[in-house]
Amino acid sequence: MKPRSPLDALFNPRSIAVIGASRHPGKIGYTIVRNLIESGYTGKIYPVNPFAKEILGLKAYPSVLDIPDEVDMAVIAVPVGIVNRVARECGEKGVKVLVVITAGFSEVGNREAEEELVKIARRYGMRVLGPNIFGVAYTPIGMNATFGPSRIRKGNIAFITQSGALGIALMGWTAMNELGLSAVVSMGNMADIDVVEVSEWLADDPHTRVIAIYLEGLKPGTGQRFIEAMKRVTAKKPVIVIKAGRTRRGAAAVASHTGSLAGADTLYSAGFKQAGILRAETVEEMFDWARAFATQPLPPGENTVIITNGGGVGVLATDAAELHGVPLLQPDNELIEKFRKTMPWFGSPKNPVDLSGQAGVDNYVAALRVAYESDKVDNIVVLYCQTAVLDPIDLAKAITDVAKEYRDKNKPLLVAMVGGIETYEAMKVLNREHIPAYPSPERAVGSLAAMLRYKRYREKLGKQGLV
After folding, report:
1. Distance between CA atoms of 79 and 63, rounded to whole angstroms?
2. CATH top-level class for 297-460?
3. Domain 8-292: which CATH class?
4. In which residue ranges of the chain is pLDDT below 50?
5. Sign of CA dihedral 195, 234, 207, 290
6. Going edge to edge, which strands form the sheet with 210-215?
7. 47, β-bridge pairs
8. 43, 206, 257, 434 — which has fewest CB within 10 A?
9. What is the distance between the alpha carbons of residues 290 and 177, in angstroms, rounded to a whole number?
C-alpha cells in the first residue's frame, strides 16, 4: 500500500455519501448510486435525499449529518445555490473529500461561489474535486462514482479529463475498443485538486501503468509547478497529453468551458517536452499510445523488425518508421537466412520481412520465433492484409500463443490488421490478450515511436541519476 496521501480518500474511500441521490432513473443522482452498486464497490454507500426513505434498495438519509457512520467521500449533485451549505455540513460530519458534480461556478463567471466552496473545504480540512464534473472512478476497488456508463473495462490506463461530455463519451469508447482503465477522473474547474496532484497520486499507484490526459489549460501562474511536478511523474510512468485550445478560437472556447487558461500553444509544447510528456494530436492517437504502454514492456533497444504478408502495408510501415524516428534493423546475412526459411521462395527476407500474400499461420509463427530469438531484434511489428488463404482469427490466436511463449524476452510486439469485419474481430482477440492491435500500419508504428521516445527520455534521466 502506498504511503498515506490527501487523495487516498478520493481513490480508496471506505464510504461514500451521494448527496442529491434520486429515486428517478435518468437523474444524475440516481445514475451515480446505480453505478456504485453495479460496479461492485464494496464500501458503504449512503444516499442522501430529504424526501426519500430508500433509493435502489439502500436506506436514504435526510442529511449527511444524519448518517450514523463515518463518511470518507461525498459526491455532491445538488443545485448550485445549496452546494456550499451542503459542503459545510460535510465539514461538520468529518468528510475528507468532496466530489462536486454541480456546474454553475467559475465556468459561467460565478467565481465567488467557487472561492467560498474552497474556503469552506479548507476550514474543515477537506479536499475538493471539481466543481463542474461527471465524477471519479477507480476500478481496482470497483468504484464508479460517475454519471457516465456503468461498465468500465478494468485495466491499467488512467484517464484524466477536463471535459465532462468528452470524458463520458470516451468511457464508452474505451470499453467498446477493449481498452482497460484503472481510473477515470473528471477535473472540471480544478478549484482545488488539479491535474498535477491527481497525476502524482497515480504515479505511485501499482494498478496504473500509463496516464492519459485531456487538457484544456492550467490556472494562471501554475505553469512552472506543472512542469516540475510532471517531471517527477514521468520519471516513474509515461504521461500522454492531448491539449485542446491550440488555435485562437479554440483557446476562447476553453475559457468559456472550464475557466482555464489555454495560453500560447507553443509554450505548452515546450513545457510538455521539458516535463517529458508525450503530446498526442488526437484522442485516437492518445489511446493508441496508451494501449501500447499499458500492455507491452518498454523497448530494450532501438532495432525494429516488420513482418508482413503484403508489400504495400510494409512500405507504408517503412515510411511511418522513418517519419517517426523508428530505426529499422538492417539484418545481417545470418538473420536474413533464418527469415528466408520462414517464407516461400518469392518472399523477401529483408526488413520489412515480406512473407508474401500466400503466407499462412505457420509462416507467421516461424518468422515471429526468429524475431523473438534473435538478440539483434528489439521490437516487433506484425502486419496482416486480409487474404483468402489466412483467416485473421487463426492468425490472432497464433500470435497470442507465440507472444506468451516468449514473454520473458521483454520485446514489444505491436500488430496492424487491414481488412474487413473478420480483421476487426481478430484485433479484438489480440487486444483482449494484451497485444496492441491497430487497423493501420501507421498507427502501430506511431505507437511504437511513442514508446521509443519515452525510452530515450528515461535513459537521459538515468544518465543524470534521476531514475
Report:
1. 15
2. alpha beta
3. alpha beta
4. 1-3, 250-251, 254-262
5. positive
6. 143-146, 135-138, 181-186, 154-161, 210-215, 239-243, 278-280
7. 18
8. 206
9. 13
pLDDT digits (tens, 9 = 90+) for 426-455: 999 999 999 999 999 999 999 999 999 999
Q: Which of 46, 49, 53 is nearest to 72 (CA)?
A: 46
Q: What pLDDT does residue 259 have?
A: 47
pLDDT of the residue at 249: 59
What's the rounded Cα separation, in Å, for the pair 146 and 354?
Answer: 48
Q: How far apart are CA 301 and CA 423, in angstroms?
A: 30
In this structure, the chain runs to a length of 467
Site of grid cell 479484438 = 428
pLDDT value at residue 464: 85
d(CA 23, CA 54): 8
Q: Which of 49, 22, 283 is nearest to 165 (CA)?
A: 283
DSSP string, 325-348: T-PBP---HHHHHHHHTTS-TTSB
Grid cell, residue 108, equals: 459561467
pLDDT recorded at residue 221? 82
Start-end ranges of CATH 3.40.50.261 in the chain?
A: 8-292, 297-460
Q: Would you tell me the crossing angle of helices 265-275 and 223-234 to the nearest 10 degrees?
A: 30
Question: From CA 106, how far away is CA 103, in angstroms rounded?
Answer: 9
User: What nine digits make up the cell of 67?
Assistant: 448518517
The closest alpha carbon to 304, from 288, 289, 324, belongs to 324
